[in-house]
Design a protein that fits this description.
Helix content is about 30%, strand content about 15%. The protein has about 180 residues and is of the alpha/beta class. A six-stranded parallel beta sheet has the order 3-2-1-4-5-6. Helix 1 packs parallel to helix 6. It starts with 7 loop residues before the first strand and ends with a helix. It binds magnesium ion and zinc ion.
């Protein structure tokens, strides 16, 4: 046991590593962006632990079960393994609908903060990145940095660093 701390990238799922299919409910509909795997690989090479932080209100709305969400996440982890990458260090899921007033739905920072505490992640040098302002905002609320990626995020107000692709974001990170 050491006191060594680690930097991390917290990633949004839908619209960031896979296409946003609007309540994705089947592993058959998982579709990666062309740059996703190379972006994740570069982040790992640069020494970051990788986590997913995802709002899955489809569970709270009764569209699909939490088991289905876990099944999709297992399939994504297996895809990473099949490409020689390690699985994600953690999957942070908010399964609640907005009207459930939970404390874990982005932009609330709880899921990030829990991982930071558990795995001794240092705030300095760590990021939350996604395609929506709530993702970047979630990072700032967790006292880490926030960035927006993907052109779909261009339509939103941007007080945050913007990168056209996840790979460009990964390339911008220090070694
Ligand atoms: Mg998203
Ligand atoms: Zn929640």
């Amino acid at each position: 046991m050491t006191n060594k701390t680690t930097k991390a990238i917290f990633l949004d799922r839908d619209g960031t590593i896979i296409w946003d299919k609007n309540y994705l409910a089947s592993t058959n509909d998982i579709e990666y962006y062309p740059d996703t795997l190379s972006a994740l690989k570069l982040m790992i090479q640069k020494g970051y632990k990788l986590y997913i932080i995802t709002n899955q209100s489809g569970v709270g709305r009764g569209y699909f079960s939490l088991d289905t969400v876990h099944e999709i996440h297992r399939a994504i982890d297996l895809d990473l393994l099949s490409h020689g990458l390690p699985v994600f260090s953690g999957w942070g899921i908010c399964p609640h609908a907005p009207d459930q007033n939970c404390d874990c739905r982005k932009p609330a920072p709880k899921l990030i903060l829990d991982f930071m505490q558990k795995d001794k992640i240092e705030a300095r040098g760590s990021w939350m990145v996604g395609d929506k302002v709530i993702d970047a905002e979630c990072g700032l609320k967790a006292a880490i940095q926030g960035a927006l990626v993907r052109e779909t995020s261009l339509s939103q107000n941007k007080d945050y660093p913007f990168f056209k692709t996840l790979l460009e974001f990964a390339q911008s990170l220090p070694e």
